[in-house]
Amino acid sequence: VIFLHSALTSGRIVTRDPVQLRTLMRFELIDVIIALGIAGMINAAMLIMAAKVFHGTGHLNVGTIEEAHRTLEPLLGKASSVVFGISLLASGLSSSAVGTMSGQVIMQGFLHREIPLWIRRGVTMAPSLVVIAVGMEPTRVLVFSQVLLSFGIPFALMPLMIFTSNRKVMGVLTNHRITTVLGWIVAALIITLNVFLLQQTFLEG
């Protein structure tokens, strides 16, 4: 996602003037804050809704998407389960689109190769089709996919910190020393937590 965001905004940088670059940076910062703020509010709303609707009514064993769908309808009405299903569909489609576009950006940037559209669509759809064909439990597959994503986090965080603190790359937009130190602390914390998650999943689970 980091590579995709960089690619989508690279066309806006058409100047090397320090003042204009800082102005662009300010607008990008506002854009990121708004986007992440909305995403954070949506996630918070989901957690609050689950705590209130499920745990607040004694439904403590809702562990799958199907159970959540069945439990929502008698508690909040049929419309709630329909909205829940549409939200999951929209989330899946957007995630697939971001993953496909990110892969294309990386291939073009690092390998200078453009993958045909049908191959990109096939690679995106193949894992889901395999899960459906084999009959695997969707929730377990979802959790496992999130664990696998943990492998990629260090490979995104570390280059991000290295590049944004490099004056040859960033110029006047180089991270402040305090920002760099705090960034490395946060990156180390996230990597440590993900290593702990992997250990729990594969060694203890």
Strand content: under 5%
Order of helices and strands: HHHHHHHH
What is the helix content?
over 70%
- What is the rounded distance between the termini? 29 Å
Number of strands: 0
Structural class: mainly alpha
What's the shape? Answer: globular
Poorly predicted ranges: none
Largest sheet: none
Mean pLDDT: 78
* Computed Rg: 21 Å
Q: With helices defined by DSSP (H or I, 4 residues minimum), what is the helix count?
A: 8
How would you describe this protein?
By secondary structure, the protein is mainly alpha-helical. The chain has a domain of 69 residues. The chain has eight helices and no strands. Helix 4 packs across helix 5. The longest helix has 36 residues. It is globular. The chain starts with a helix and ends with a helix. The model has no long low-confidence stretch (mean pLDDT 78).
List its salient traits.
205 residues; mainly alpha; 8 helices
Write the layout of secondary structure elements.
Elements: H1 2-10, H2 18-53, H3 65-76, H4 78-111, H5 117-134, H6 138-164, H7 167-170, H8 177-204
Helix pairs in contact: 1-4, 3-4, 4-5, 6-8
Short structural description:
The chain is mainly α. Helices cover 82% and strands 0% of the residues.
